Amino acid sequence: MADRFPRNAPIRRLNSEPAVMAAAGRALVLQLAHPAVAQGVHDHSDFKRDPFTRLQGTLEAVNAVVFGTEALAQRVGQRIQWVHSFITGPGYTANDPSNLLWVHATLVDSALWANEALLGPVPAEVAETYYQQMKEVALVFGVPLDAQPETLADFRAYVDEQVASFELGPVAKDLIGWILKPQLRLPAPLQIPLVPLRRRFRIVTLGSLPAAIRDQLDDPWDDARQARYERTIRDLGRALRLAPRPLRTGVLQAGNPLMLLQARRHVRAFEERQRGRAATSESSAA
């Protein structure tokens, strides 16, 4: 069965770039800046024990839609929407299209930021096509097309409006603190080499955030940190651009079959459980 998107489609080209991984922390922080998303994560996940599991699950699902078939995309979407149906609480539901749209928006905005900041300007027509194709991804996860900004310019205006409206409460600040200083339980010999990586992750995440969000964090930003951020971005971008694109994207592309396999396994397990639930329900009714 044919893939959902052509192999050379902008959605596949931009999402294949390892630069996108540099925006992982940025995407998570922006998601948690939304009060309903932050509360849902706080109430329904083991975020503090493993703050990146949620992002990993999101990326697996998006990867399945972007690089998999239409059939797999629909099955993944059904599974995700079913899981989200249990994430509810006072004032929020995970399947609310407005909440889903913001989570999706953080991925789109962060992917475009990473490509532009680290690899150079994305041509306007490519960026627009990328956005239009990512709208189809959001549709799979439960965001109707008429609930999404129509064009990339509309989308950027929506992101700016959302960011300007957020006031970070204690729950959001607490969770974001765990992203910026993840408590990874590793043997001491493995902790030491990670120290410089953690510092770079932190400076890139903070520096890439909109000032309206960063200024609300208990993490003062000054000229020295801004200069360090710019230097880090410049060095990382230079290293990425030096590598030919096939080599640069090879690692992520090599991992795609494994991620698609994992997505299929999760879908099959979900469908088997659904069949079991249906059989139990029919038996009880009889």
What are the key terms here?
single chain, 286 residues, mainly alpha, two-stranded antiparallel sheet, 13 helices, 2 strands, 1% strand, globular
Strand line-up across the major sheet: 1-2
Tell me the strand percentage band.
under 5%
SS-derived structural category: mainly alpha
Q: Strand count, sense and closure of the main sheet? A: 2 strands, antiparallel
| SSE arrangement, N to C | HHHHHEEHHHHHHHH
Shape: globular
What's the total count of β strands?
2
Helix content: over 70%
Q: Count structural domains.
A: 1
Task: Look at the structure and give the mean pLDDT.
Answer: 90
List the helices and strands and how they pair.
Layout: H1 10-15, H2 24-33, H3 35-44, H4 53-67, H5 70-84, E1 88-89, E2 92-93, H6 97-119, H7 124-140, H8 152-165, H9 170-180, H10 188-208, H11 211-214, H12 223-242, H13 245-285
Antiparallel strand pairs: 1-2
Helix pairs in contact: 2-6, 2-9, 2-10, 4-5, 4-13, 5-13, 6-7, 6-8, 10-12
How would you describe this protein?
- By secondary structure, the protein is an all-alpha fold.
- The protein has one domain (10-285).
- It has helices spanning 10-15, 24-33, 35-44, 53-67, 70-84, 97-119, 124-140, 152-165, 170-180, 188-208, 211-214, 223-242, 245-285, and strands at residues 88-89, 92-93.
- It has a two-stranded antiparallel ribbon with strand order 1-2.
- Helix 4 crosses helix 13, helix 6 packs antiparallel against helix 7 and helix 6 (97-119) packs across helix 8.
- The N and C termini lie far apart (40 Å).
